[in-house]
Design brief:
Elements: H1 2-11, E1 23-28, H2 29-49, E2 51-52, E3 55-61, E4 65-80, E5 85-89, E6 93-113, E7 116-139, E8 145-164, H3 168-171, H4 175-207, E9 211-213, E10 218-221, E11 229-230, E12 234-239, E13 242-245, E14 269-274, H5 275-287, E15 292-296, H6 310-313, H7 320-323, E16 329-335, E17 340-344, E18 347-361, E19 367-385, E20 389-406, H8 413-438, E21 440-441, E22 448-458, E23 461-470
Antiparallel strand pairs: 1-12, 1-14, 2-4, 3-4, 4-6, 5-6, 6-7, 7-8, 9-10, 10-13, 11-12, 14-23, 15-16, 16-18, 17-18, 18-19, 19-20, 20-21, 22-23
């Protein structure tokens, strides 16, 4: 339903004042209005599949006496809703107002007149139906979202019924007598049905996951940190937005720094991703030993004058070729400390603390360690976002090298630093940028895709401002 869609939008994002979190977001009034437009069709589809609760009772007919009735298998055949009014209810959640709606229902009837049963079918036309309801939004102790029916009022302007089958010619003579009790009974059902729908949604939310596995190394915790903050023209929520090792909720050494989303209503959704998210992810991959890459000579550019063999490396370690003449080599790059990301206005700054260990590949295919280098680099990065993927690009801004250990004598440090910087620019970064440019797929939430997303880098966080579009699934899609 419309209010369920609104909650899905809110649950995909994050913000609340006074709390430092890893992920912040906002649904604006523009987003709410879009949810209203596409959610209207969703409401019609859901209601037309729904079977209304059975009704039963009795009423008095002049000259006949009490007539017992039961109405079952009630289904909605047609539903006409004027544009409903959907708005934020400050401090509570979402307010829905439907007026002058029209519903055509059908079902089966049974009556007992003077102890004689009869049955058939009917059409029920309900007009001038109005509903005003509020959906409350909150958070439970496990960090999952909560919903509840904060208020509900309903009324029916007119009800007309037409019987078919059995002695319907007779009962149709008494439809005026039927109208008032049926109006009363159906009107009593509207708000209970609304509250039942909200209870069903609440049961689903209690089972929803609050973390997701990214790959064999990492998962992200996106549980709610506190209850949503609903203002007059937007809805905000806070999510933890922190990465953990798969199966290991080891606390990262970082604490979220405060940041605030800008006041901006031109887009449907605002999403703020703090430095904590990236740094907690880097901590997970570093502690898991995933930040490693081995290089061999066949991975070097064909036109490179420097090869990964002892003949070329003797330029930097003169004793190397004497000890290991004309042998291939292998270079193992790894992080010796966790990478650190900082968000600066219009740029991402990434500090890398690496180690490069060189091995000679011996004739028996074993490897002999010959030297170990400490490598420190600074990178500047940019993010790229489209409707389906998020990517990035990086450029080298500084590089420093020192020899941590050598088993093959002294090294030509400055020359080696210059060459390694060249290798980074010509080999390592192009490989990294190729993967980063391809990007990573964005998760799909209820067939919603981003429209004209914009990425802006602020002090301490990255802001994504976007509209969304709902795409209906093809028939038969899973």
């Amino acid at each position: 339903m419309v209010w369920a869609f609104v909650f899905v939008l809110l649950g995909a994002c994050a913000q609340a004042e006074g709390t430092n979190v890893g992920l912040k977001g906002r649904v604006t009034q523009k987003g709410l209005e879009y949810g209203q437009r596409f959610g209207l069709e969703l409401v019609k589809s859901l209601l037309q599949k729904k079977q209304v609760s059975d009704l039963s009772g009795s009423y008095a007919v002049p000259l006949v006496g009490d007539v017992g009735y039961s109405v079952s298998r009630i289904r909605i055949k047609d539903l006409q809703l004027n544009e409903p009014a959907l708005s934020f209810s400050e401090g509570t959640g979402v307010r829905l107002v439907v007026s002058n709606a029209h519903i055509l229902l059908s079902g089966d009837w049974r009556v007992t007149v003077l102890f004689i049963p009869d049955s058939g079918s009917f059409d029920l036309n309900v007009s001038n139906l109005s509903l005003s309801a509020e959906l409350g939004l909150g958070r439970d102790d496990s960090g999952r979202p909560q919903v509840w029916s904060a208020s509900c009022q309903s009324s029916i302007g007119r009800l007309d019924v037409k019987f078919h089958g059995g002695a319907s010619w007779l009962y149709n003579l008494f439809t005026e007598a039927l109208r008032r009790p049926l109006e009363h009974n159906i009107n009593k059902q509207l708000c209970p049905e609304f509250r039942k729908g909200i209870s069903d949604l609440e049961r689903v939310l209690k089972t929803m996951p609050v973390s997701a596995k990214i790959d064999p190394f990492a998962e992200i915790d996106y549980s709610l940190v506190n209850k949503p903050v609903i203002a007059r023209d937007h809805g905000d929520m806070d999510l933890k937005g922190e990465f953990f090792g798969v199966g290991k909720h080891r606390q990262s050494p970082f604490s979220p720094a405060p940041f605030a989303l800008p006041e901006e209503g031109a887009h449907m959704l605002l999403l703020g991703l703090s430095e904590l998210m990236a740094n907690s992810a880097a901590f997970v991959y570093f502690t898991a030993g995933a930040l490693r890459k081995n290089f061999t000579d066949n991975m070097m550019p064909k036109h490179s004058p420097i090869r990964l063999n002892t003949g070329s490396m003797r330029l930097f370690f003169p004793e190397l070729k004497k000890l290991y003449p004309d042998m291939p080599m292998e270079l193992h790059l790894s992080a010796r400390k966790q990478p650190l990301l900082a968000c600066r206005p219009d740029s991402l700054d990434l500090a890398l603390f690496g180690a490069a260990e060189a091995f000679v590949i011996l004739p028996n295919a074993s490897r002999a360690s010959v030297f170990l280098l400490d490598l420190d680099a600074s990178l500047a990065g940019q993010l790229h976002l489209d409707s389906a993927r998020i990517g990035a690009s990086v450029a080298l801004t500084s590089f420093n090298m020192s020899v941590a250990q050598s088993r093959v004598g002294p090294a030509q440090v400055k020359m080696l630093e210059t060459v390694l910087k060249l290798v980074l620019r010509l080999v390592v970064l192009p490989m990294a940028n190729k993967k980063l440019k391809a990007g990573f797929p964005l998760p799909s939430v209820y067939n919603l895709s981003l429209v004209n997303p914009q990425v802006r880098i602020h002090q301490g966080f990255v802001l994504v401002a976007t509209d969304v579009q709902h795409t209906a699934r093809a028939a038969g899609a899973g």
